[in-house]
């Protein structure tokens, strides 16, 4: 007996509990790059609660695909205007039909062709993802595309080779052989560790300036006393 779509849906598991079904990353370079993309954006937007970042996480976009497990998810994706909470996977029909606003694929020898063809077409035609980028941690190949009237158009780089993401409101660009975020003003978006280090440097600089001012004041007071003038307290 054939089942209706409603009957089939009733037999499916609670899709909110469906696990991700992603393979391991290709190399330690890929792991580190993915962690860098996640940590920097999470830190930059730490006061916001209206986004979700998926890292090597499966996106389920129809029940047949869920049943067959015939799709490998993006390496990195961002969904805006959604609840910031942990998820085992991204199930579009459990998320109000929302698809990623931005996707980044980390190229490797085994995935490069699929990322540039099949996945690009899927993200353009089915997901309608506004921003799509790919980056190779091995070769540093880097390209980005913006959805314009339903078709991906390549994003032109600025003078530094960075590509602007409308979805992020940030540039993506290569810095020290890694893909990083940059603000509109050209500032590198730091990791939490880099931010803490920068704050320590700023505190040290303020302390150094205060010490220099104190030494100059003491030197001036000594010069005045040598002239028989008692400096005012």
From TrEMBL:
Domain of life from the UniProt record: Bacteria
Gene3D superfamilies: tt1808, chain A
Region (Disordered): 192-212
All copies of domain Putative restriction endonuclease, residue ranges: 33-171
InterPro entries listed in its UniProt record: Nuclease_put_TT1808, Restrct_endonuc-II-like, Uma2
Pfam families reported in the protein's UniProt record: Uma2
PANTHER family: SLR1095 PROTEIN, SLR1612 PROTEIN
Protein name as it appears in the record: Putative restriction endonuclease domain-containing protein
Origin species: Crocosphaera subtropica (strain ATCC 51142 / BH68) (Cyanothece sp. (strain ATCC 51142))
């Amino acid at each position: 007996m054939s089942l209706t779509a409603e009957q089939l849906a009733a037999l499916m598991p609670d899709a909110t509990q469906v696990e991700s079904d992603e393979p391991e990353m290709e190399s330690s370079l890929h792991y580190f790059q993915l962690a860098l993309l996640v940590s920097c954006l999470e830190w930059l937007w730490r006061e916001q609660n209206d986004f979700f970042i998926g890292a090597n996480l499966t996106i389920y976009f129809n029940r047949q695909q869920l049943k067959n497990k015939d799709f490998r998810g993006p390496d990195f994706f961002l969904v805006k205007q959604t609840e910031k909470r942990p998820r085992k996977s991204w199930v579009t029909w459990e998320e109000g039909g929302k698809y990623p606003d931005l996707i980044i694929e980390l190229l490797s020898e085994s995935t490069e062709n699929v990322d540039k063809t099949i996945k690009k077409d899927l993200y353009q035609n089915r997901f309608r993802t506004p921003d799509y980028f790919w980056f190779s941690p091995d070769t540093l190949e880097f390209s980005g595309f913006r959805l314009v009237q339903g078709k991906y158009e390549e994003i032109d780089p600025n003078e530094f080779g960075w590509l602007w993401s409308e979805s992020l409101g940030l540039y993506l660009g290569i810095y020290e052989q890694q893909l990083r975020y940059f603000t509109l003003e050209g500032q590198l978006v730091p990791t939490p560790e880099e931010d803490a280090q920068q704050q320590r440097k700023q505190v040290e600089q303020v302390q150094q300036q205060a010490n220099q001012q104190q030494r100059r004041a003491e030197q001036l007071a000594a010069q005045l006393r040598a002239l028989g003038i008692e400096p005012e307290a």
